[in-house]
Every structure is written in structure tokens, then in C-alpha cells.
């Protein structure tokens, strides 16, 4: 009995060093039993990988799957969370995301807990993130199945005869859109859309644009995202008056910006949008 207890203790205290997407070495105790997720897309993906029992905490912005996240402790926002609540959860692993979470918060948490930072900027890095979760959380087979499903669905996206020139709007007052080096820009490209502001002169990943720049852009369509600014029908009228010969569409921001398992659901939506906008051009 004593020998078995000793072996169990050794297994319980096994350590593993991994390098995250921003080059930090993270020391994990295997197996990982208590996971805190600080990124909504990653939270949804962790649940889809079957890690319901291991997830001990989420942020208030972790919305999916709704029936499951509401059962988990909420530690606050992705950038303003309650450190005392994190401490009380005693996570074995905290998963953060470079764009979602501030470096200073990551370092403060890393002083007490293992923190793995993902960096998702495009389709390949989104698939890598899923594979990394599989390796970190001992669910590699489920992660491989998920990535295979996503790849199959994206390969089936309809092909456009000619790229549609689009602007993807994320804010109003001031108008802001997406540019290069963003996950959304890569999704636009995979749909066959040409993001006209991907190399904006200001160099920002989320540049401000003027109404005159929109008029001068020779656009086929303007896509008004549901997040972070909640564009509605009244805003389509605003853009239609500004750009009378351009297709204006409200679009599901989650389909364009949530990576991980959401990509499986998003592929059909993106395909329908591509087909619809191609029809308006004919």
C-alpha cells in the first residue's frame, strides 16, 4: 500500500515544461485538473473538448455554451478581473490570449500560477491553438477531431469569381474597421473578400476611417459587425445614405472573430454570406 501511495504521489506531482505562443516557459503539474480560462473563444473550445469538470472559472464575457458557463465561477472581465477570486480557485493552469489579456495581468497571475498565453491572429494559429489545448489538457484526440472538422468545413466554402472589395466595421463615432494582422482579416480573405483597409496609412490593426475614405474606397460591400459595437438596422440606413451603390450587411461578429470550435459553426454562415453577396453583384 505504501509503495502504491508513493507511485500515485509521483504521478500527481509530475512536472512538464511547455513554451507558449509568446515564448514564455510554463511549468505545469500533470495531469491538469483545474483550468481557468480568460478568453471567451478558448472557454467555448475547452467545453467542446470535453473538459467540463476541469474548468473551474471563466470571465463574464465567456458566453458559450450558455448552459455550462453560467455554472462556473465568474472572475470578472478579461482585462479587469478579481485577483482574489482567481486565488480562491487555485487553478493548475490559466489560459490567456495575447490580444484579450493585458501583459501586466498575465505576469501578475504568473507569479502565483502557471499561465499559458495563446496568440491567435489567423486561421493556422487558430488550429494550432486547438492542438495546443489538446496537448496541455490531455485531450489530443478530441482536438484532432475538431481541427479536422473545421478544415473540412472551410475547404467547402464557395469560391468567388472575383474578390469582393469590403470594409469590415467594428465601431461608430469614430468609424473603425479591421486591418491586417488580425484574425478577422484572415477570415475575410478566406471568404474571398478583399479588405480594402487592410494596409491603412495609419498602420493600426483597427484604424479609424472617415466617411470620405469609405466613399473613395470603391467598395462592393460594407460589413457591420454585431461586436464590439452593436450595429443595427438603423446603422445600415446610415451607411446606405453615405454609400448608395454599396451592399450594406449586418454580420455576426462571432462568426468572424471567435476562433476555436466556433469556426465549425461559422463556416456555414460565412458560406451563405459569400453566396448572398455574390448574387447582389450580378
Question: How would you describe this structure in keywords?
Answer:
282 residues; alpha/beta; disordered N terminus; four-stranded parallel β-sheet; five-stranded mixed β-sheet; 42% helix
Question: Would you mind describing this structure in some detail?
Answer:
This protein has 282 residues and is of the alpha/beta class. Helices cover 42% and strands 18% of the residues. It has helices at 2-12, 40-48, 66-69, 83-89, 103-110, 123-136, 140-155, 183-190, 211-216, 233-242, 253-257, 262-281, and strands at residues 14-19, 25-30, 35-37, 55-57, 93-97, 115-118, 164-171, 176-177, 193-195, 221-225, 247-251. The strands form 3 sheets. Strands 7, 8, 9, 10 and 11 form a 5-stranded mixed β-sheet that branches. β1 and β2 form a beta hairpin. The longest helix is centred in the C-terminal third of the chain and has 20 residues, at 262-281. Residues 1-11 have low confidence and may be disordered.
Largest sheet: 5 strands, mixed
Strand content: 15-25%
Report mean pLDDT, rounded to a whole number.
93
Order of helices and strands: HEEEHEHHEHEHHEEHEHEHEHH
Tell me the radius of gyration.
21 Å
Number of helices: 12
Instruction: State the share of residues found in helices, binned by percent.
Output: 40-55%
Write down the overall geometry. elongated
Q: Distance between termini?
A: 77 Å
Poorly predicted tracts of residues: 1-11
Give a count of the beta strands, DSSP E runs of length 2 or more: 11
By secondary-structure content and strand pairing, the structural class works out as alpha/beta
Amino acid at each position: 500500500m505504501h509503495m502504491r501511495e508513493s507511485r500515485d504521489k509521483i504521478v500527481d506531482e509530475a512536472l512538464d515544461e511547455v513554451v507558449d505562443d509568446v515564448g514564455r516557459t510554463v511549468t505545469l503539474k500533470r495531469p491538469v485538473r483545474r483550468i481557468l480560462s480568460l478568453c471567451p473563444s478558448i472557454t467555448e473550445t475547452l467545453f467542446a473538448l470535453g473538459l467540463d469538470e476541469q474548468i473551474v472559472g471563466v470571465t463574464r464575457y465567456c458566453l458559450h455554451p450558455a448552459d455550462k458557463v453560467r455554472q462556473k465561477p465568474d472572475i470578472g472581465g478579461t482585462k479587469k478581473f478579481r485577483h482574489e477570486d482567481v486565488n480562491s480557485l487555485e487553478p493548475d493552469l490559466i489560459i490567456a490570449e495575447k490580444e484579450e489579456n493585458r501583459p501586466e495581468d498575465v505576469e501578475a497571475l504568473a507569479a502565483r500560477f502557471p499561465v499559458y498565453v495563446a496568440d491567435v491572429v489567423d486561421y493556422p494559429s487558430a488550429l494550432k491553438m486547438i492542438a495546443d489545448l489538446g496537448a496541455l489538457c490531455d485531450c489530443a484526440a478530441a482536438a484532432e477531431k475538431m481541427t479536422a472538422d473545421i478544415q473540412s468545413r472551410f475547404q467547402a466554402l464557395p469560391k468567388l469569381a472575383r474578390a469582393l472589395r469590403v470594409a469590415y466595421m467594428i465601431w461608430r463615432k469614430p468609424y473603425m474597421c479591421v486591418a491586417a494582422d488580425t484574425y478577422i482579416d484572415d477570415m475575410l480573405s478566406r471568404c474571398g473578400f478583399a479588405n480594402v483597409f487592410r494596409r491603412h496609412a495609419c498602420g493600426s490593426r483597427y484604424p479609424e476611417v472617415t466617411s470620405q475614405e469609405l466613399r473613395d474606397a470603391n467598395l462592393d460591400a460594407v460589413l457591420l459587425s454585431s461586436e464590439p459595437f452593436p450595429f443595427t438596422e438603423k446603422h445600415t440606413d446610415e451607411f446606405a445614405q453615405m454609400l448608395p451603390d454599396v451592399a450594406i450587411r449586418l454580420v455576426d461578429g462571432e462568426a468572424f472573430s471567435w476562433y476555436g470550435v466556433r469556426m465549425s459553426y461559422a463556416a456555414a454562415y460565412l458560406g451563405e454570406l459569400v453566396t448572398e453577396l455574390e448574387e447582389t453583384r450580378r
